[in-house]
């Protein structure tokens, strides 16, 4: 919920732990934020969608401040005052004009840093020296290299480096003990494979003029899904927005989805959109029955990298086995085809009666050369994400789950990536 300047000035927000002045026309932070009635309780400050270029030194005097969102402003430098905020652990400055990040701007308790869609060409070595760093979003910048210190970021679990200018994937990242979600598409090292998938995957083309557009079924960062009719056939159409997202470029998502092929655990592409009046790209897919629902909600500010499940969700052992086995088999096929999903989460799984499941959302997917040492390392990285998913499913199993499933989950989560099983073996174990 957004607040207003009028509420702030009238004292109506005294004692608030969270204040949102999103889109309030700010060119500076209001002084009322630093008065004792607010300063002593404020933990989350959202000033996104304004015209801010700097932050005041007084920010460092807020004793409980944990989270600052300042996306879609006019910053060109990440303010160094952030590094002097003793309790600050989440910093979100997406879609600014940031060209420079100094070591001094990084808070000592930094856990979650979002710098998506800026103009960064380099980052300080101090970034990998923040011992609590768990989630790092850097898609849509101009990075040609990453700090070598990131290879020591032992708590890092989620990394988004898509849509940059990296000529190679830093090998040290693939040895990180806890890294489970990696998006690295849309860089020069994967460009040729993406272009080949877009150019040579044989699917039918359907012209925009042949469609009847119906209601919106959903919307994500990269596009909007509509129900459509084409030649008396009901389909779903994902219309891509075109701009960079927190996961990367839409064309990288399209390339991976097209290359994924047909599998019972994947939502297939049944066609590509042709001749949209605004030149937008689109992919067709079958309509999923309304009995299918997302298995969980996305992570919260507190859970950081772990999904939020419905309290009442319980799975029978048979349904759990079918669901987990289907997902593992789908991922085995993806990796055989040189695709890392990058966002293996329950919130990207549609589940239906009896453990039926579809893995969707290829927004964070990356293409690579299969059959190489790097390919195996990328697969074992994603196996850790599967281990987290299996852990969450087992916690919601009706009755005591088999010991073999618990052992499989533990094998997927070992912190030495080379010791993890591959998806083909995981799928066989869940048959």
UniProtKB/TrEMBL annotation:
UniProt keyword Zinc-finger present: no
Residue span, Protein kinase domain: 211-431
Entries under SUPFAM superfamilies matching the protein: L domain-like, Protein kinase-like (PK-like)
UniProt GO cellular component terms: cytoplasm
InterPro entries referenced in this protein's UniProt entry, alphabetically: Kinase-like_dom_sf (IPR011009), Leu-rich_rpt (IPR001611), Leu-rich_rpt_typical-subtyp (IPR003591), LRR_dom_sf (IPR032675), LRR_domain-containing (IPR050216), Prot_kinase_dom (IPR000719), Protein_kinase_ATP_BS (IPR017441)
Keywords, comma-separated and alphabetical: ATP-binding, Kinase, Leucine-rich repeat, Nucleotide-binding, Repeat, Transferase
Binding site residues for ATP: 238
A molecular-function term among this protein's GO annotations: protein kinase activity
Protein name, as recorded: Protein kinase-like protein
């Amino acid at each position: 919920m957004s607040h207003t300047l009028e509420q702030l000035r009238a004292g109506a927000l005294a004692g608030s732990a969270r204040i949102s002045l999103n889109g309030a026309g700010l060119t500076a932070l209001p002084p009322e934020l630093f008065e004792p009635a607010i300063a002593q309780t404020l933990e989350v400050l959202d000033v996104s969608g304004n015209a801010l270029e700097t932050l005041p030194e007084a920010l460092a005097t807020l004793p409980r401040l944990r989270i600052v969102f300042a996306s879609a402003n006019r910053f060109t430098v990440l303010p160094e005052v952030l590094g002097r905020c003793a309790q600050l652990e989440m910093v979100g400055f997406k879609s600014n004009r940031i060209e420079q990040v100094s070591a001094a701007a990084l808070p000592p308790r930094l856990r979650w840093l979002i710098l998506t869609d800026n103009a960064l060409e380099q980052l300080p070595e101090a970034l990998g020296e923040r011992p609590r760093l768990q989630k790092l979003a850097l898609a849509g910048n101009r990075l040609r290299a990453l700090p070598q210190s990131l290879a020591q970021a032992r708590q890092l679990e989620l990394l988004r480096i898509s849509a940059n200018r990296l000529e190679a994937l830093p090998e040290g990242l693939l040895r990180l003990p806890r890294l489970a979600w990696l998006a690295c598409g849309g860089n020069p090292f994967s460009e040729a494979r993406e272009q080949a998938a877009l150019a040579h995957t044989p699917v039918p083309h359907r012209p925009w003029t042949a469609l009847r557009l119906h209601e919106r079924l959903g919307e994500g960062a990269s596009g909007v899904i509509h129900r459509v009719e084409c030649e008396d056939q009901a389909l779903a159409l994902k219309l891509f927005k075109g701009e960079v997202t927190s996961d990367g470029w839409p064309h990288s998502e399209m390339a991976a989805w097209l290359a994924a092929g047909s599998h019972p655990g994947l939502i297939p592409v049944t066609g590509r959109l042709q001749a949209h009046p605004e030149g937008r790209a689109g992919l067709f897919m079958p309509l999923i029955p309304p009995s299918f629902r997302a298995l969980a909600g996305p992570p919260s500010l507190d859970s950081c990298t772990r999904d939020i499940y419905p309290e009442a969700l319980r799975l029978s052992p048979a349904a759990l086995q079918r669901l987990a086995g289907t997902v593992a088999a789908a991922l085995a096929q993806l990796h055989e085809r040189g695709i890392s999903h990058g966002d293996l989460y329950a919130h990207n799984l549609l589940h239906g009666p009896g453990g039926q499941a579809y893995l969707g959302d290829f927004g964070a997917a990356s293409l690579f050369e299969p059959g190489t040492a790097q390919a195996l390392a990328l697969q074992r990285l994603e196996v850790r994400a599967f281990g987290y998913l299996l852990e969450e499913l087992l916690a919601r199993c009706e009755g005591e789950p088999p010991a073999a499933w618990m052992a499989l989950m533990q094998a997927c989560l070992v912190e030495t990536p080379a010791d993890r099983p591959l998806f083909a073996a995981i799928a066989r174990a869940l048959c």
